[in-house]
């Protein structure tokens, strides 16, 4: 990646917008409340704050990298454009029929998310391409022209085109797009052959519909952002973080906004992977807890685990299949509604429930004093002594403990005959157990033992809860890096330019065609490299090759990494050996006598990762100086304990802290329970390990 001396990272979250400025080797950051009606307002506010801290003007910024949850929220809240779908005759109801699988087999009241588009907004054309890409029924241009006139009468703003087997032969989709461009020039069009050229029509159709649904919204926002920044004297290029953990141009982001759906969390995973590389840690549990959600990701060998399908808006928290599938390259993580703003209530079974509904920034938790009356996780943290009401967000946001106590008693304690402290303890334990359960499920699904992992915690709320999570999960080591409160925004500044191109082409190993494979992967390599070159014209570009393989008759594939030599000189024996090696790691054995299939081919083009300086082992020196004490509730003992208060900015390398303690900074607070001790590492990380006061 080209070096920039002055770069701005911006992460719009559901509650806070995080802004980080790096210039001349120094870093400056701030958190401002997200402005929902016009998210760009919070960016401008935060930009001015960090520029003032750095003593520069916005015009001196040389690059902006931006990530956002706006696309995700638009899908979850159904706030997209009026959209139509054009598909092959007979496949109108694919996005509503789904795969007909029951993720909760015995639930008679099973709730599935409604499709993004109602049936009257789904249209068909009489064309057909078979599974080999051969045209069986040609597409009639006149039929498309007549259909365009009917669609125009509905007042649509965006159209998705998803035809059967278009990933093998996109000619019909391209013709539909050309006709729509002529007949409906003001309407946005997305075709599945470009958005998600992969087999399985339900996932592909759902992905292109999602892209079309949010495309006008994101294009409008990105256009407004560019204009506002120009008005502030900022003329540098703007880049967007995508869900796969890399950076793309603002134009590519506007064309493929569905790739931004997990952009904020992806930045956090990149940040954690960078920390893992500095410390040479091969097994990391990334824990990102912000104001609205908590994200958990497994990172092995300093690389976040990736996937090509994930779900948005699950109706059942831990149930695969209960959400809308999006088929794009994405960092694989589990995300739950457990942030500082997540609201608590008592259900019909008299159990405390937390999330997924969030107070966000408008009005925010009750303690914000912005007319919020329902208790959130932040209210529980405040009542339990984890937060200082006079120094929250560097003192920029005053907190009101009495309003937290009132909300907790009214909505929790009054129903369950608890005082405010007991109610706060209950809320905190429920949210911590929810996150611990999410981590356990994610680990089991991937065949991992979390006791072998190191946790890296970041996000405004994560350091408040991370040590308790480690107690629950049996994790012995926790790292809280500098800038943890704005970790995702820092991650944007560490990410490479990258783009992953993929395509479904079915092939059995018994029909292995080496020249065809080489041509296909070369074509995908050129496509992915072309996207990266729109961002960076000079840096070297690395290519990462991956194929998705399965035994014949199986319903899903596993990803197999290939070296460039293996990809460019394909050999059936090598492909089989690589598949069997990874299959045995996942399932403990291979299946003899079965043919093997390849379904999806993928090439990720990326600029080289940022160079990492390893951290040398640090001996302990002396105990850290305290600025005072306050009572903080210890969940393990169920009682308040007097805890030392330490200002993080005063810590020097090697200084130690024995819990219970709270390490404070402007963007977050690190809670160190009695079961843990901590030490400041040379790079500023707070290294927290099991073993506290006897």
Structure description:
With 694 residues, the protein is α+β, with helices and mostly antiparallel strands. Helix content is 32%, strand content 27%. The protein has 17 helices and 35 strands. Strands 13, 14, 15, 20, 23, 24, 31, 34 and 35 form a 9-stranded mixed beta sheet that branches. Strands 3-2-1-4-11-12 form a 6-stranded mixed beta sheet, with helices on both faces. α5 (171-183) links the parallel β9 and β10 (188-191). α4 crosses α5, α10 (377-383) crosses α11 (401-416) and α12 crosses α13 (462-473). The mean pLDDT is 90.
Question: What would you say about this model in short?
Answer:
The protein has 694 residues and is α+β, with helices and mostly antiparallel strands.
List keywords for this structure.
single chain; 694 residues; alpha+beta; six-stranded mixed sheet; 35 strands; 27% strand; globular
Proportion of residues in β-strands: 25-35%
Which structural category fits the helices and strands? alpha+beta
Total helices: the number is 17
What is the helix content? 25-40%
Number of strands: 35
Radius of gyration using CA atoms only: 26 Å
Shape: globular
Write down the overall mean pLDDT: 90
Outline the low-pLDDT stretches. none
User: In angstroms, what separates the terminal alpha carbons?
Assistant: 49 Å
Largest sheet: 9 strands, mixed
């Amino acid at each position: 990646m080209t070096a920039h001396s002055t770069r701005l990272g911006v992460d719009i979250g559901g509650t806070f917008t995080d802004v980080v400025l790096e210039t001349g080797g120094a870093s400056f950051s701030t958190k401002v409340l997200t402005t929902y009606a016009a998210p760009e307002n919070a960016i401008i506010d935060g930009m001015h704050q960090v520029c003032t801290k750095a003593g520069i003007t916005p015009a001196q910024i040389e690059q902006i990298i931006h990530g956002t949850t706006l696309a995700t929220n638009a899908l979850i809240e159904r706030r997209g454009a009026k959209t139509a779908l054009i598909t092959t005759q007979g496949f109108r109801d694919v996005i509503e029929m789904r795969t007909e699988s029951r993720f909760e087999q015995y639930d008679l009241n099973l709730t599935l998310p409604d499709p993004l588009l109602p049936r009257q907004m789904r249209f068909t054309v009489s064309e057909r391409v078979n599974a080999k890409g051969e045209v069986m029924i040609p597409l009639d241009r006149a039929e498309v022209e007549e259909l365009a006139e009917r669609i125009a009468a509905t007042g649509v703003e965006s159209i998705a085109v998803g035809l059967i087997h278009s990933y093998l032969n996109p000619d019909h989709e391209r013709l539909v797009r050309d006709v729509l461009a002529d007949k409906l020039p003001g309407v946005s069009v997305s075709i599945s052959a470009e958005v998600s050229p992969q087999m399985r029509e339900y996932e592909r159709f759902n992905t292109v519909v999602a892209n079309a649904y949010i495309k006008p919204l994101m294009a409008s926002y990105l256009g407004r952002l560019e204009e506002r920044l120009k008005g502030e004297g900022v003329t540098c290029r703007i880049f967007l973080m995508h869900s796969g953990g890399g950076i793309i141009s603002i134009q590519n982001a506007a064309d493929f906004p569905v790739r931004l759906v997990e952009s904020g969390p992806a930045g956090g995973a990149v940040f954690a992977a960078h920390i893992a590389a500095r410390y040479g840690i091969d097994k990391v549990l990334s824990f990102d807890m912000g104001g609205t959600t908590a994200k958990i990701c497994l990172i092995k060998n300093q690389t976040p685990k990736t996937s090509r399908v994930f779900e948005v808006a699950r109706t059942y928290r831990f149930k695969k299949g209960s959400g809308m599938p999006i088929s794009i390259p994405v960092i694989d993580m589990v995300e739950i509604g457990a942030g500082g703003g997540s609201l608590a209530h008592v259900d019909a079974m008299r159990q405390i429930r937390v999330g997924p509904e969030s107070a966000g920034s408008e009005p925010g938790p009750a303690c914000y004093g912005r007319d919020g009356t329902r208790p959130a996780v932040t209210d529980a943290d405040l009542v339990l002594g984890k937060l200082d009401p006079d120094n929250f967000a560097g003192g920029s946001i005053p907190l009101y403990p009495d309003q937290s106590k009132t909300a907790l008693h009214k909505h929790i304690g009054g129903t369950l005959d608890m005082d405010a402290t007991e109610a706060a303890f209950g809320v905190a334990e429920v949210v911590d157990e929810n996150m611990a359960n999410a981590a356990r499920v994610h680990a089991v699904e991937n065949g991992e033992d979390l006791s072998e992992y190191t946790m890296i915690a970041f996000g405004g709320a994560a350091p408040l809860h991370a040590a308790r999570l480690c107690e629950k999960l049996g994790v012995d080591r926790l790292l809280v890096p500098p800038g943890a409160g704005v970790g995702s925004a820092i991650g944007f500044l560490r990410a490479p330019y990258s783009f992953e191109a993929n395509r479904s082409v079915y092939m059995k190993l018994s029909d292995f065609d080496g020249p065809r494979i080489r041509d296909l992967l070369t074509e995908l390599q050129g496509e992915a490299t072309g996207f990266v070159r729109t961002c960076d014209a000079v840096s070297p570009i690395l290519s990462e090759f991956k194929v998705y393989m399965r035994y014949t008759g199986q319903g899903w594939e596993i990803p197999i990494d290939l070296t460039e030599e293996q990809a460019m000189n394909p050999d059936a024996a090598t492909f089989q050996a690589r598949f069997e090696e990874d299959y045995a790691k996942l399932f403990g054995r291979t299946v003899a006598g079965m043919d093997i299939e390849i379904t999806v081919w993928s090439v990720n083009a990326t600029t080289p990762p940022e160079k990492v300086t390893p951290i040398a082992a640090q001996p302990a020196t002396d105990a850290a100086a305290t600025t005072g004490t306050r009572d903080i509730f210890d969940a393990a003992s169920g009682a308040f304990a007097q805890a030392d208060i330490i200002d993080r900015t005063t810590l020097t390398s090697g200084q130690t802290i024995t819990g219970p303690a709270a390490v404070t900074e402007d963007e977050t607070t690190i809670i160190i329970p009695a079961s843990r001790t901590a030490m400041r590492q040379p790079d500023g990380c707070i290294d927290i390990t099991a073993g506290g006061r006897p």
